[in-house]
Design goal:
Order of helices and strands: EEHHHHEHEHEHEHEHEH
Number of domains: 2
Largest sheet: 6 strands, parallel
Amino acid sequence: MKRPYELLIFDWDGTLMDSEAHIVACMQAAMCALGVEVLDPRTIGNIIGLGMREAVQTLFPDRSDDRFFTRFTAAYREHYFAADAPQALFDGAMETLAELRRDGYRLAIATGKGRHGLDRALAESGVAELMDVHRCAEETASKPDPTMLREILAELDMPPAAAVMIGDTEYDLAMAARIGMPAIGVSYGVHAPERLWRHRPLTCLDCITELPPFLRGGARRGGLTEVG
């Protein structure tokens, strides 16, 4: 089978794992612990996908000093790792990834998650063995900066046009556009489809299981001019 791309790069939270509710609950618990305003789920959901520092700065622009960030991050992680996480892969995600591997694709993860959280999620979900490479925001730059995509491409010796980014947020699609990499949106995550379409993805999927047939249908090879 002739593949339209060689590498598929996935976001994690909201694209492969149904973790929004758990992340929001842990964020709110951290806010309670620090005695600051407890923000609503929609506001918190909007920052899922960013690195932790960028997320805290966005939620609390007037309280983004290092001490506040350190305390907030510690409180968040205490709740995140202590709780029985009510999160799991989206239906069909594991089967889809396995199918894509059988079809000959290389697979990668580009996420705003921390390394400890991602490693645990990969191991517990069984996805680790399917992935060639992954990058976290704390190891490089946060989305929508495209540095993590550039690093993944460099490690696998591929140009942007040979890969496609799959994600549920504007941050995912924007970072791909910045280096001329095609992207695919998913409509079931944290950002509404109309926000994703602004970034001209190849398509916007309603379920992750739609990805293999879309690719087999000859997904057009695309890409935008690099702007930064």
